[in-house]
Every structure is written in structure tokens, then in C-alpha cells.
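INPUT
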Amino acid sequence: MSAQSTSGIAFIAGGTRGIGAAVARYLVKTGAAQTLFLNYLENSAAAEALKNELQQQGATVHLLPANLAFPDAVRDMFEQVAGLTDRLDYFVHSAALTTFKPLHAIRSNQWDLTMNVSAKSFLTCTQGCLPLMQHGGQVVAISSTGALRFNPDYGALGIAKSALENMVRYLAVELAPRGIRVNGVSPGLISGENLPPFPQIDLLVAETLRHTPAGRLGTPEDVAEVVHFLLTGARWMTGQVLVLDGGCSLV
Amino acid sequence: MISKQDIERKLITIIAKSLQIPEKTVQMNSRLLIDLEAESIDILDIRFAAEQEFGIKFDTEEIRKMLLQAAQENQLSEKDIPQFFTVERFYDYIVRKIEQHNA
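OUTPUT
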């Protein structure tokens, strides 16, 4: 089966839930991409539901269940992608996995899994995309404001997101001569299923709202809109990470 | 084909390594979330390692249903699942998946 198309072809790591799913929906809604490769770890039912939803809007969707913690699995996944398309235009990294607890209490295996899925897989997936971006391409990593500022019980993921943001800068310079732009977005607290499931979440939401001039939490769609801009516009922007928090970090 | 004894031994090694505890503290009747204090990310870590070790794919929903059934057989509900999530049930699930894989 061929996945050739005149519109954009997108690969989204962690693409069937939360921000990743919102980006997929936004790209289809705007016509920026009509062929999507959506990676996910589990919850096949949610993945199939999103696939059906997008296909009803005319998109072609390929689901790619794969555990991004393992480079072998990433390699196998991109072999599958390369069997279906000879080009990718967009890569969005929205995969993350962690446990929410104080950094000093994180066990080695929990650190490794957080880093491997949330940070290292950005590198391995970018490496997988490169042979399919011979014509150039756009890459966006989903970070979080916890990469730069303390959030309670967020240490492991915050540090993984810091690594992600630094990879954005390094890859942007390295890949610019190939016509590939690499940027990131750094959302603050996002409503819905993206809210971290830690005990003090109600307190954190209340504090965030108190310090957010815009007066509300962000939504996955707020993030998807900016990701779309970075993928389809912003031609002179690379190596940048845009903060999306309704002004919270300014106050 | 891998023996059941080998599966048990390797599973205990995987659990002990993930949770950074001595293998002798991992008993077949140990409850992962209660006795061994595993967290949800640890269960994923153990699952990933077991998938790699035994060449099978886990189905989270299958495991949930298996544990729910055990709870319901004891007139308990979904919230009581941690009480029934023992190393032995994890082992039984792996043995069944390996048998299905080899069938």
C-alpha cells in the first residue's frame, strides 16, 4: 500500500492521545497533512477510534504501536514507515512517560524509562525520519515549562524535557543545511487528560490559574495550533522553543 | 522451548532488578503493588523487560480483566485489584502468552 500524497505526510510519536492526538486532528482539519503515521504505546481502542475519526475526514492513517524506550523497536517502526512512504514532511514528538514524585526519590529504572521514552526517543525517531526527509522537513518537540522551572513531583520529566529542548537546539543547527527546521513548544499546565496525575494537582491548578493572566489553563488545541504554525509557516525559525502558558511564567 | 522453571526464575530476576530489591524478597505470592511497593511505572518497566525477555506482547486490558475476575471471585471490585496482582498471576499470564505464541 502506498502512502503518497500531495499534502503533507506527518509522523507523530505519541500521536493518539492528548497533545499528539490534538496535533493530528489539527493537521487534518487544516489540510496540512492528509497522511498520518501515529505511534502509540498502548490503548489500541483509543488509537483505533482516532484513526476512524480522521479517516472519516478523508485522511489516511497508519497506526504504529511501538515502545519507543527501545531503539530496536524504533528501528522496526521506521522500517514499517519506509515500506509505506518514501517521504515524511513533519515529525512531532509528543511521547512521554514518567512517575510523579520528588526527584530525590526516583529509582534508577524509573529515571531510565523516563529518559528513554521522553528524551532519547526524540533522537532515535529523528534519526528514523532523516532518510525520509531528503527533501527537507519540519520537526517539533513537545516540551513543558517544567523543563526550566521547578514543579513539585516533576523532576524526572522536567529534566527529560530539558534534554529535549537542548536536542532541539543542537539538531536545528546540524540539520539546517539539509532544509530541516527543528523547533519546540513548551506548554504550561494543559487541561484534560494531560494534567499530571499527582496528589497535589488541584493545588497546582489553583496556583497556576492564580498566576495566569489569561485566566485559564491551556488546552491541547492551543498547543496544536502553534505546532501547526511551526510545521507549516515560521520558515525563518529554527532551534527555538516557544512557551505556551497564557503568560503564567511572566508573573 | 523455555521451561516454566526458567520463566519463573527470569521473571523474579526482572522484578528484583527493576525494583532494586534482592531476588529472595520476590516470592510467587508477593503482591507487586503492595508487598513489593511497585509503582505503575515499575509495572510498565517490568512488562517491557518481560516482553523483551520472552518475545511476547502484553495486553493491558487482558491483565486488568484477569485481575478483576480474581477480585470478583472474592466478592471484591476493581479498586481491590492490587490485592490480587501477585507475581504468580503475572507468571501465569506470561506462561499463557508464551503458549499462545508457540501454538
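end of record. The mean pLDDT of chain A is 94.
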